[in-house]
């Protein structure tokens, strides 16, 4: 097992966009796969230990901390969206949405994009913080929430060191969705009167996102199984992993949508505001 080298991980964070050494960063992430699994397991255990510890205690207020957290992660998601999306339009314009974005071109990102993509991968561990707010504030902790955080981080650690335009396209779409979701959470944490329709729109956006990932998978399967040449840079095992994960997310979010907004006219918290 390789040694944990936080200094090395941090060195890439402070490197900046210019000449970002993407292959070194990818190697470092690959060398830390076991540590990533340990962090994910530690997250799982500490979340449920903390939940148990809080069972007879008053919920913590944490309003200001939650606002600051949501503001930071909103700014990160918005800036990363711009940094990652604008150069990607060139791939799409040149080679089309499927080939240019999903199948093979996106692996050849600029060094600036590579830098932001590295931050995006690390942010999936930082986003574990969301759950600690839920537990300490004694809000309902649903399976979808912790499963999604754990699986997404491990999926990123597995895919990032490998060439995969499909994975990179997924990350870029996801950060754009987070650029809407976190400002929504920020507004909620400020106790602003957010109309119920906004929550529905955010959940719909998440569902469209998972659907777009699944359409990407179908395209890969079609090319792999029915055409003579397979030009995409994701191995079929990578595509299978992506299909499994995104199908599970799609089903869980569809269930969330159904229970929150449709059954008995939807939950009150989304109606009253
Ligand atoms: C509309 C949603 C974005 C959020 O649904 P929720 O039911 O969580 O929304 P809500 O408005 O009722 O807010 C719930 C409570 O959480 C508080 N809250 C504020 N900021 C938060 C944060 N960063 N993390 C967790 N909770 C937070 C709110 O103030 C509110 O508290 P109070 O009740 O005190 O006002 C939905 O689409 C969704 O994603 N639901 C799944 C739940 C979830 O955990 N989602 C985030 C990770 S999934 C993800 O990130 C998917 C992806 O990658 O696209």
UniProtKB/TrEMBL annotation:
Keyword terms, alphabetized: Fatty acid biosynthesis, Fatty acid metabolism, Lipid biosynthesis, Lipid metabolism, Membrane, Transferase, Transmembrane, Transmembrane helix
InterPro entries: ELO_CS, ELO_fam
First-listed, main subcellular location of the protein, grouped into a coarse class: membrane
GO cellular component: endoplasmic reticulum membrane
GO biological process, one term: very long-chain fatty acid biosynthetic process
A Pfam family it matches: ELO
Compartment list: Membrane
Transmembrane segments: 34-54, 66-86, 115-136, 143-161, 167-185, 197-223, 243-262
Pathway assigned in UniProt: Lipid metabolism; fatty acid biosynthesis
Membrane topology: Multi-pass membrane protein
Highest taxon of the lineage: Eukaryota
Coiled-coil annotated residue ranges, if any: none
Gene Ontology molecular function terms on file: fatty acid elongase activity
Family classification: Belongs to the ELO family.
PANTHER family in the cross-refs: ELONGATION OF VERY LONG CHAIN FATTY ACIDS PROTEIN (PTHR11157:SF9), FATTY ACID ACYL TRANSFERASE-RELATED (PTHR11157)
Name of the protein described by the UniProt record: Very-long-chain 3-oxoacyl-CoA synthase
């Amino acid at each position: 097992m390789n040694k944990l080298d936080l200094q090395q991980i941090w060195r890439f964070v402070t490197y900046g966009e210019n000449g970002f050494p993407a292959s070194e960063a990818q190697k470092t992430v690959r060398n830390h796969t076991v540590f990533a699994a340990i962090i994910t397991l530690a997250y799982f255990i500490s979340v449920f230990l903390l939940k148990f510890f809080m069972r007879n205690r008053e919920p913590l207020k944490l309003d200001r901390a939650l606002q600051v957290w949501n503001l930071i992660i909103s700014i990160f998601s918005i800036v990363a969206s711009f940094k990652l999306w604008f150069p990607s339009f060139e791939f799409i314009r040149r080679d089309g949405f499927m080939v240019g974005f999903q199948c093979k071109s996106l692996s050849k990102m600029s060094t600036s994009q590579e830098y932001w993509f590295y931050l995006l991968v690390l942010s999936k561990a930082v986003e574990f913080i969301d759950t600690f707010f839920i537990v300490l504030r004694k809000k309902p902790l649903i399976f979808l929430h912790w499963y999604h955080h754990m699986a997404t981080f491990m999926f990123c650690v597995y895919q990032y060191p490998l060439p995969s335009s499909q994975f990179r396209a997924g990350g870029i779409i996801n950060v754009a969705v987070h650029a809407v979701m976190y400002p929504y959470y920020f507004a909620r944490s400020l106790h602003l009167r957010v109309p119920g329709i906004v929550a529905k729109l955010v959940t719909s956006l998440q569902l469209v996102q998972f659907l777009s990932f699944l359409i990407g998978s179908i395209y890969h399967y079609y090319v792999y199984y029915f055409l003579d040449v397979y030009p995409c840079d994701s191995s079929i095992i990578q595509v299978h992993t992506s299909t499994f994960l995104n199908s599970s997310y799609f089903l869980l979010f569809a269930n969330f949508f159904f229970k929150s907004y449709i059954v008995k006219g939807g939950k009150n918290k989304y109606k009253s505001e």
